[in-house]
Amino acid sequence: MAIPALTAEFLCEEIVVKRTINWLIGLLIAALALAAPAGAQQPGTQFIGITGYRVGPYGANGAAFFSGFIDYLTLVNERDGGVNGVKLSWEECETEYNNTKGVECYERLKTKAATGPTAIHPMSTGITYALIDKAPVDKIPLITFGYGRTDAVDGRVFPWLFPLVSNYWDAATGIVRFIGEREGGEAKLKGKKITLLYHDSAYGKEPHPILEAEAARLGFDLKMIPVPHPGNEQQSQWLQIRQYRPDWVILWGWGVMNATALSTAQKMNFPRDKMVGNWWAGSEIDTEAAGDAATGYYAASLNLAGKDFQVVRDVQKFVLDKGKSQTPAKLVGTVLWNRGLAAGMMTVEAVRTAQGKYGKKPLAGEQVRWGIENLNLDAKRLNQLGFGGMIPPVKVTCTDHGGSGLVRFQQWEGKKWKAVTDWMSGDRALVRKMVEDSAAKYAAEKGIKPACLAG
User: Confidence class of residue 22 from pLDDT cuts 50, 70 and 90?
Assistant: First the structure.
């Protein structure tokens, strides 16, 4: 097979660049909408600090997520009058997905209200790592919805860190199980070749130990290939893939890296239905930018896309139709916007849970931490909140700061995502063992005595 010369110009071919630019232009109005209610100066509000990013190479992805997040907070104020009568307020600080700026935003936001910033969503594994030692000192919980440090699932060692719903090791073992099912059973993976094409960052390195363990257990050959930030230069990586001739490629990307990988796979005739991404490589931003190169591509998902959820209809009615949002219409119901709604909801429900113990008033981060650790979003409660079917149930405890560990797989049909599995889990026993082993090692290094934090 004749392979076109792989150059930087080829990798940034016109179709990818134009469609990515179209997404960015479509989101420009959201990028400009950085101002939010000046809650820090409003007595009696629950202030929420937002370390977001709407500019830079990952700005389109961040704008989608944080637009959904803020739209949900607005919904709670407009529809419900706040949380048990306590209005929400917030302020957004631009991190550009940069670790140093992320820390600067955290330091700025923690002083904006007497009660602190409620809980911080870093939306970056690198920023999460940079804040791990700060959060316990400042008593500010970190919610890492499907990202961050995986062994933080063990709340006895990481009482201030909450990788809710599912973590990267859940994702990796779930992907292996999914590939196994497509091959006719996990036993058929023996002797297969699998490539992990990953973002060369803390985020991209998270799945390495669990995939190595899975390769040893199931007998497949694993080749891990890094892609430097931001990911639009993949010449040498795809030359390695061509030489290696893998049966499957796992895409662990973010931003422009994903569309570039899909476009390049098409050029070298690597089948996209033999590619599966994690949940940060499975949004419309990735697939629409790649055009028809994305058709057939699989991705794991923490949440489903779509507008046919009651919460989306409520946001449309109480927020968007009333001009209370700057969110572009094309974002509504997309994967990352819906994920932002879910992240906002979990923050609000943590506050509501904590109010049951500490009173219906603005709460400090230490009190909200208790609320997160006692969060129980079963199917009935998710239906009441309008999220039934969008995300799986989540129950948090001291020993399990993760929740469900479930993942669902979707396939890009050319214009939309279609769910192709039900909610499923990977190797939960292996994940838990590795979580406890890794957390215990961290505890020994830091001189931490694992224990549940008293509320």
Answer: very low
pLDDT, tens digit (0-9, with 9 covering 90-100), for 241-261: 999 999 999 999 999 999 999
| Token pair for 311 | 């919460």
Degrees, nearest 5: CA angle 243-245-249: 120
Q: Is the pLDDT of residue 30 over 60?
A: no
Give start and end residues of each alpha helix (H) in 5-58.
8-11, 14-26, 28-32
Measured from the Cβ of residue 402, the count of other Cβ atoms closer than 10 Å reads 28
pTM for the model stands at 0.91
What is the rounded CA–CA span in Å between residue 9 and residue 328? 31
- DSSP per-residue letters across 98-140: -HHHHHHHHHHHTTSSTT--S-B---SHHHHHHHTTHHHHHT-
pLDDT at 116: 95
Name the CA dihedral angle for 176, 177, 181, 182, rounded to a multiple of 10 degrees: -30
Per DSSP, the residues of 182-232 read HTTSGGGGTT-EEEEEEESSHHHHTTHHHHHHHHHHHT-EEEEEEE-TTS-
Q: To the nearest 10°, the Cα dihedral for 67, 230, 1, 175? A: -60
The residue to which tokens 């919460």 are assigned: 311
The residues with which 282 forms a beta bridge, in sequence order, are: none
- The distance from CA 145 to its chain's CA centroid, rounded to whole angstroms, is 5
Report the Cα 160 to chain-centroid distance in Å: 18
Structural domains present in the chain: 8-21+168-304+410-432 (3.40.50.2300), 28-167+309-408 (3.40.50.2300)
CA–CA gap between residue 333 and residue 33 (Å, rounded): 19
Q: Are 128 and 167 in contact (CB under 8 A)?
A: no
Residue 9 has pLDDT above 50, yes or no: no
Please report the pLDDT score of residue 454 as a whole number.
78
Q: Provide the pairing of β-strand 408-412 with 417-419.
A: antiparallel
Pairing type for strands 161-162 and 142-143 reads: parallel
What's residue 235's pLDDT? 87
